[in-house]
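User: Predict the full complex structure for these chains.
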Amino acid sequence: MDYVIEMVEITRTFPGIRANDRVTLQVVPGSIHALLGENGAGKSTLMSVLFGLYQPEAGTIRVRGRDVRIANPNVANRLGIGMVHQHFKLVHCFTVTENIILGLEPRSGLVVDRKLAAARVRELSRRYGLNVDPEARIEDISVGMQQRVEILKMLYRDAEILIFDEPTAVLTPQEIHELMGILRKLAGEGKTVLLITHKLKEIKEVADTCTVLRRGRLVGTVAVAATSEARMAEMMVGREVNFHVQKGEARPGEVVLRVEQLDVRNPKGLLGLKQLSLEVRAGEILGICGIDGNGQTELINAITGMAPAERGRILFKGRDLAGCDVKRRTGLGLGHIPEDRHRHGLILDFRLDENLVIHGYDRPPFSHAGILAAGPIRSNAERLIAEFDVRCGQGAATPARSMSGGNQQKAILAREIDQSPDLLVIAQPTRGLDVGAIEFIHQRIIAERDKGRAILLVSLELDEILDVSDRIAVLCGGELAGVVAAAATDANELGAMMSGALRRVPA
Amino acid sequence: MNGRGGKLLLPVLAVLFGFALGALVLVVTGKSPLGMFEAMLQGVTGYNVETRAFNARHVGEFIAQTLPIILTGLSVGFAFRTGLFNIGAEGQLMAGSTAATAVALWVPAPPGLHVCLVLLAAMAAGGLWGAVPGYLKARFNVHEVVVAIMMNYIALFLNNWAVVELFHSGDRVRTATFPASAMLKSHALSALTSGSRLNWGFVPVLLSLFVYWFIIERTTFGFSLRAVGFNQDGARYAGMKVKRNTIASMVIAGAFAGLAGAVITVGIFSFGRALPAAEGYGFDGIAVALVGGNGALGICFSGLLFGMLKAAQLLMQTQGIPKEIASIIQGSILLFVAMKYGIDYVGRKLRPAKAWEDGS
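Assistant: Here is the predicted structure of the two-chain assembly.
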């Protein structure tokens, strides 16, 4: 069979690490080829080599049967290879069309022929079902739309081989679904799609072939239709993986958090949360699901004290939280694992031990009369590092910035759980993490439930909500669309409630 | 690999590049760079290579020149640690000078106590001058740089007005001489260094260096200041008082600069002065803080470095080397240090392997 791309025995090393060790990848034209591996397995390096961002130390690359040397991304473009990066490279104050033609502007005389450009963009958008408005400004369109602009950029440059680097990491479930359709359509039109991901479900859904990497080495290439998710996970991790979170029955106790008729304004000044009422009991996990931006952030902010409530009451252990600031709430026994690890969860330039006392630094044993006690701060870190298996090169003194995402999240989890809070508010705990870390974090959350903590889990991943929660509250447009038992519902019902098609609110 | 060694390497390289560039300029203009280095050696150690004579006065002058810029360096550095740019050290220093003059002339107090009151008043005035941009930043999110620049002018002209109108300067340039009890001046120290302007000012400066280090590294207050400086959102999430810290940081920064004003007014001089324009100590402070990496020890050393350049200027002139060469060196060191951030950035970009090293 002829391959459109053959990468043979590619080796690329970085100081102290072999990112790719004699990796071979062969891609059939017109197929969707997934590249699977945990964080750090070498997927992105391999694709960066193909896109000309890195030069391999050994190995050959053939495109359409011809040996090539891809010295830089311009060479890749000329070979018809395009890449959508995880972080988009768009000019925010430009329109869709301006972004797409940037560097390749069609001219009539001395001026850019906008009309011609827009028409071509419109035509491409229609042909591949992308549904993008060529005149819209990037800053005004959703992340999903921005991604489509990146796809259009590749198509506009006549790319035949399209590389997607973790394209679903930033998307909502709805957008993921639409992207899968777009990928199929691209392959149907004869394009070759290379998909970097660590999400098995997506591979199962769209990919034809899957190449698995582990620690820089090729594990194998399999036909997706003939391989189970469990088998692929095993190849990726190197051991059997528990997909289904193991947990016993919840034994709910008294109500720990009661939210009554809560209204919260979002930063735009509009009501992001309307008349919301719910309660969380000790020893249960209440999952909150909804499409991104349907009131989750407002709810978390109001409960944790990051934003004021407009109307309504929040009762924590029977006590009204109105007028309590963040510090007070933490002191009362409210733990918070924030959605954005880097922006809120950690001070990245602090050491790990400093990050672990970010709530308690001004109290004994970590300080006395305003003076920090270095000894207890360090031993606290050493204890939590051991207990939560946080991997960090320099122990307590490791800069938080240098740790991997999974270990950063473990550190935050350790810090919040260690205060033994009565209520844990957890947002997107596993975003961007690999299978091993996800497993660990889910188990710890359930272990806390079994100790009798009340847990409010907010996540955009439906599977996570379904697997981990005991009860599920669905938000739609800032309102409660319903509360259901996790055991008695499924993704379809939740999807219908999230989109507003179904309401199940007890009278 | 990016520990203490890496932090030290870049400023040292920047300094070497700066001197190399200064020497190059001299060579190009047909002068011997040797004379420049001799002037610097003489400025620091008092040893004259050509005459083989030793004059302790140069050492004393060098230290006296260094003291105020270490303090303004601490002022700028302290604000930097909280994520603020204190371009107002100049005005805070001026406010400190005015307050020091007022207390020195008007408040009768016994020796010992008097000079302490002078220093405290200068710190309070500098703190007040810093509080204004701090408060406006915290309350209304007005950029501290804009407010601080305006405050610099207000301080300068307020000082000039006070010298003439309040302190009744006879010649419209200087006030009457302060009583000895108000001054840091010391005949003993001056005599020890063959009549230099060396004074007791090094005592409050050393104390300030210690206090700076102690607040930043050892107190819970410093912990929250650093947290706010690195990541405001993270600090807010942890329940820290971001606004209060912003104001407090500017007040403390202003107090360091205000103290510099007193060290100049009652240490180097013995009277209040009306000035046609700012003397640039505040801007030197920015350079000192940047080169010193905002740490107490670093600021001390970079203060000494820039103090040396200042002290060497006059000596260079006697060697027939234009004193502006010192400014060229100072400017290029700063340029190279600013490039350090660029070098760091490029270094990070070139080290994607890091993700694997720490991968889970």
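The radius of gyration of chain A is 25 Å.
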